[in-house]
Amino acid sequence: MAPESAAPARSAAPAPADWPVPVTGWGRTSASSARLLRPRSYEDAAETVRGWALPGARGGIPRGLGRAHGDAAQSAGGAVLDMTALNRVHVIDVATGTLLTDAGVSLARLAEVLLPHGWFLPVSPGSGQVTVGGAIGADVHGLGHRAAGSFARHLLSLELLTADGEVRTVPRGTPLFDATTGGLGLTGAVLTATLRLLRVETSLLTVETERAPDLDDLLHRMSTSAPPRRYEAAWIDLLARGRSTGRAALLRADHLPARELPSRARRAAAALGPGQGPYPPRQLAPGPLGLRATGAWQGLRLRTLPRAGTHRLCELDAFFHPRETPRPRHRGGLIRYECLLPYEAQETLERLVRRLARRGCPAPLALLRRFGEGDPGWLSFAAPGWSLCLDLPARLPGLGAFLDRLDEEVAAAGGRVRLAEDARLRPDLLAAMYPRLTEFRELRRTLDPRGLFASDLSRRLDL
Description:
Layout: E1 21-23, E2 32-37, H1 42-51, E3 60-63, E4 79-82, E5 89-93, E6 98-102, H2 107-114, E7 119-120, H3 132-138, H4 145-148, E8 155-161, E9 167-171, H5 175-180, E10 189-196, E11 198-199, E12 204-212, H6 215-224, E13 231-236, E14 248-255, H7 288-304, E15 310-315, H8 316-320, E16 334-341, H9 346-359, E17 365-371, E18 385-393, H10 399-412, E19 416-417, H11 430-433, H12 437-447, H13 456-461
């Protein structure tokens, strides 16, 4: 057992802000005001939640580091429970690869702690500045879903602070576990989590990069890749049109075994360090000109990549978190649109990409991935199919109506939009996208009959 010594500071009270403060998602859209509370202990958190049951209280929602783009961690007129002071790593069992940690610890911090022991997180999303609780509430996925699934697949149990102010131990395989993983904080606040880890020998990946000249070629390469790699994703140039529509950089990667390193390098092979990821460049200056300049530069880089794969070594941090940039500053903010389409609906995916290209969307991020078997969370996003993730300037003319039409096509094809990043989905499409929605609502009514755990997203979509 390897305990982590750093413990959260303690206080006698949750350090409330008695006046409302503006709160937004990472995309800076749909701001609302709420009281911001930061409990310093489990007891503080429980006392705060019990206070929500008093007359006149509006309840609230737990929040981590605020990396979700939409309104899932906002609660207009209520409270936002900032869980980041609960940030202790309790135990790493280096023999079995299991971890007990507070929910307020970031995934980046966990990677730093775990790598020297030869372990890593099985699922790493696009930002390391996500807390464990946020990863559970969103049931986050990474670049290796076909191999690893979503975050909940590696979660053994959790401790959950529910609306009655009590703490429940929730093992996997129970209805409350399935409602909480992907449940967007609406069943309660996660206090601790027990996770199963991934054994690694070094902090390096071997990465293969190649160019797909158009969408048909890209889908063929991604559908027929052999042997399969643990991580795979394609960065699409959405400004390319005509015969080049869907032009992309395709990345595949695996963890590097120690035996493939020179002996003198093996001792330092488990240290996280900075590095240059094999990605298109970070976005340029804010505003429409900067976005289009970024798209043009990305297109130029894609055209210079070889058709056949090139191999290189890459640090884990540079590979998984190449875009740890300051918060978006685009006027009006950024809308993250992430949808999933079943494999049998590939024609719908092709139609969506071509429509986005014809519209000339200057997307700083356009990412395509293949997903494997889904996990049991009732509102979890992942399922077998194609995942398309876009960042779009919120002030693009006609963007709302354009995305509404995409939503309708996605729902009609048996797909879904990711709720953890959503800021604008129409509630009438929700049941078609999430067939276990009724079960989620019923459990939530039983667990929290007054709806004390509530967010702007849950009110907007009647969750």
